[in-house]
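S1.2 Input.
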Amino acid sequence: MRKAILFDLDDTLFDFHRSERESLEQTLKSLGIIPSTEMIEYYSRVNDSQWKLLEKGKITREQVLVRRFEIFFEGIGKKGMDPVETWHRYEHNLSRSWYYIDGAEALLSELCRDYELYIVSKGTATVQDGRIASSGIAKYFKDIFISQKIGCNKPDKRFFDLCLEKTNGLKKENALLIGDSLSSDIQGGKNAGIATLWYNPHNEKADGNIIPDYEVTSLDMIPIVAEMFFSRELSSNDK
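S1.3 Output.
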């Protein structure tokens, strides 16, 4: 039986918030704005809210990328700034910024010996391509799927269906989806009928409407859960 793990990338394997903070600071300084902790935190909240709207199909990806800076500049009293130029500067900086979450590379090195590994990311293609290339993370994965290239966004069922189509016949019951976002990763897995594991390092309370099949608070727990899941699947297939 094929055994595959589908990994979200940002805040599951890569420390996205660290890269976000670093890239935004560089961008603001290049625009003559002195960044503050409050500014960075405000941008992060605005950015998250816009991606949530994309998940719900209320705005387009292109709108996300520009609107977040329009809202941000209005909020900090810098209405005259160009949101499109800022977007391009920010993404240039972000495409070169990556940091593994502690233990992530060791985890991948271990898991790739026993499982087929795939990345399933909603990030912007140019940004993710740059970070994946410079980090060398691709060597652990059989394939990498980015929503902008696939043509659908998480949590849309079609995104995961199209990913599975590109894996040479992998069945959804032989896959485990791991991610940090309930609304994007876990809901997406449920929409597609794929078992889900919620990486929840901050021990947050789950949304009562989105219940993962498994939950861990640290990356080192993932091999244990994966072995349990696939052993159960093997037992089911033997019946």
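S1.4 Remarks. The radius of gyration is 18 Å.
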